[in-house]
Amino acid sequence: NAGTGKTTCAYLYARVLTALGLLSKGEIVRKSASDFLGDHVGDAQTKTSAILEQAIGNVLIIDEAYAFDDQLYGKAVLDTLVEKIQDGDGQDMAILLLGYETPMLQMIKGQNPGLLRRFPAEQAFYFDDFTMDELLEILEFKLDETKTTASVGFKRKAVEQWVIQQQAASNFG
């Protein structure tokens, strides 16, 4: 879900890969699925190739990647990704496909057989929603960071409200 720290972890991942000498630049290139899609046949491949070129030396984050699970433009994007990674063009980059677990697994298993080899589900990062204790820890950290004080009652009520939001919205982490 949104707000569970995926982007923050991606930045840390980029720093680690760069420190290990696996990436030459170590920056984040963040794209959503819509950035890859075009209006005409061939646009998806062209845009995907351009984005991959931009991502050399970096970590490419593709948010809402499950949107590629179609038989036209999304399939063209995934086929291009598989082709470029297979040809060795992706040696100086890392690609992270982000999205909800069920549609992501469906897409990876159903679109292109090469996806499953390049993005194996058993190597995926999973980000659980925060617990009440973790939300309280985050609140206390933010309060300390801004040198703000709050009563125990306020903190409890704030965390309870976050939990209510978390349960009511499928995209609140």
Name its key features.
50% helix; single chain; 8% strand; mainly alpha; 3-stranded parallel beta sheet; 173 residues
How does this model look, in words?
Helices cover 50% and strands 8% of the residues. Helix 2 packs across helix 3 (73-86) and helix 6 crosses helix 7. By secondary structure, the chain is mainly alpha-helical. The mean pLDDT is 86.
Summarize this entry quickly.
With 173 residues, the protein is mainly α.
Write the SSE topology.
Elements: H1 6-19, E1 28-32, H2 43-54, E2 59-63, H3 73-86, E3 94-97, H4 101-110, H5 113-118, H6 132-145, H7 152-168
Parallel strand pairs: 1-2, 2-3
Helix pairs in contact: 2-3, 6-7
Q: Largest sheet, described in full?
A: 3 strands, parallel
Proportion in β-strands: 5-15%
Distance from first to last alpha carbon: 5 Å
Mean pLDDT: 86
Name the structural class: mainly alpha
Helix segment tally: 7
Oligomer: single chain
